[in-house]
Design goal:
The protein is an all-alpha fold and 586 residues long. Among the domains are: 53-277, no CATH class; 465-586, Alpha Horseshoe (Serine Threonine Protein Phosphatase 5, Tetratricopeptide repeat). It has helices spanning 2-23, 33-53, 58-73, 82-103, 137-140, 146-161, 164-176, 189-192, 197-213, 219-237, 248-259, 264-277, 292-305, 309-322, 327-339, 343-357, 361-373, 377-389, 398-412, 414-421, 433-446, 449-462, 467-479, 483-495, 505-522, 526-539, 546-552, 555-570; strands at residues 113-117, 125-128, 132-136. It has a three-stranded mixed β-sheet, sandwiched between helices. A hairpin with a 3-residue loop joins strand 2 and strand 3 (132-136). Helix 10 runs antiparallel to helix 12, helix 13 (292-305) packs parallel to helix 15 and helix 18 (377-389) packs antiparallel against helix 19.
Amino acid sequence: MKRWLLLGLVVMLGIVALVWSERRPVDVEVSPAALLYFVADSEWELSRLPVALTRLSDQEEVDIGNRLATSYSRVHYRGLTPDQAQQAQTVANYVTRVGGTVAVRAHRKLPYKFHYIPDMDFVNAFALPGGHVFIGAGLVALMDTEDELAAVLGHEIEHIDHYHCVERVQMESRLRKIPLGELLELPAAVFEAGYSKDQELEADREGTRLAVWASYSPLGAVRLFETFDRLYQEYVRRVKSPQEELGVLAAQIIQGYFRSHPLPSERIDQIRRLIADEHWGELTRERDLEVAHIFWAERAERAYSARHYDVAAGYAKRSLDLQPNELAALVTLGRAEFSRANFTEAAAALRKALDVITFDDELLEDYGDALAARHEPAVALRDFQDWLAHHSDLTKRLDLTVELAGLTLAAHGDAAAHAALASGSDAAANLPPELASRFGWWYYHSGNFDRAAELLQSAVRALPADPLFQTRLGWALLEQHNLEGALQRFARAYDMNVPAERSHRARVLAERRMGLAVAQWQSRQFDRALIIFRDAASSQPEWFNPVWVEAVYTPGVAKAIEELKAELKKRHVAPPPYAPFTSPGQ
């Protein structure tokens, strides 16, 4: 009886409490947010429930991952030059070695495979079910240590290890109504986009743990997230222009990354707490990133293409500090120093590049130009002969003979040049058009404009659609005071297409415009000349450096350009978007 009385009392109290709560006003702001959160949470949990109940076997997951990886891997190395492909393979092998070391301690014993995407605009990494991990060149380029690479790879391994990837596949399969067997249609962006905040933080913790177990420092993860924090501040919060260090596409990828990942500051705090909790404070020794020289060289090349010559030279030197024979860095350093009118340094870097690559006709011309620009003909010839003595196997190459003859022409005159070229007075007349054009350009530098025009006209007759030949002939005609002929040649070159694969394409584009500007100025077409001059100088800022102009062209060209610059200033026309360079001679 007492039991029933007690039960009745409890029920009565419950009813009273319910009535009281309904009558009492609750101070809650009216908002649909609670309902939205409830729906979102319910949808998430409902989507996860079938996954947990129908978890795939490891083999099923591996099969799906293999099919997806095959689909995503097909285009990675398309369009690369042989040298670029070889470098990409070097980095890929390194990533595989580091990844394999980290993956050994993963909980799930899957066939982990690591893929390198040689795209500097891809600043990200992602994982696929079954053990595939992809990492982009743009992300590796941000690293200074192997420990940072280990932290990233460990993070992606944990997305696989904790079933984040396979759950994503199963949910996408349901949402898109794509059978698991047809998942080749699933875009890679599904995996690049990141996971829930809890899953990302879990991958950070456990990925760092894997790296530490593989004898890496946990400071690699801290350092990497500090880099992310800098990028977040620069490219997301401040919306800074990405031209200096990142491309537009890379900046967009970074912004998307931060929209789908926890804030870097939160990730740093978590790793520092983990270091304290696990007593990892003494694990501070980090390893150098073995492939860093490749990425410094890539940065240098990008800066050079953007006409940031000072930056390019600095990046190239950092690459060479790590790997003195890094060919791409030597080439970029040589060209950047040439553009800065540091001709001695340019010649030294280009000579070393030729020693590394053995032979390249474009580099050979660059080296010859750098030697000639110092305006010490005898010294230039001696330096070239010294280089040639170390490469006696190349002496029979005709293009090399033309360079030797050109430097001999500057040092000892026409007769000695022909003797260096070949026996017989008509040797130059029998040159192929590319070499006739080059030899004609050597005559232009020596001041023999009649002979230069003769050789260049023969090259133009053979290949009239080559804009470089037309431009060089225009310069020679200008020095013969044939303004009409020069204008005609520059105008023809101006209207011609310069193929993307053309060596020194940007230089050809700028030079033909500058030639037209100078010819128009000397023809007293002042307004038109100023418009084209400003356009040419904006794409090749060397033209605003008088030391460079005087070294590469004639006094007449240098005088016309100084007059054009003065007229721009007089008319208060804004200068090109490049600051003039300060050379050693100024």
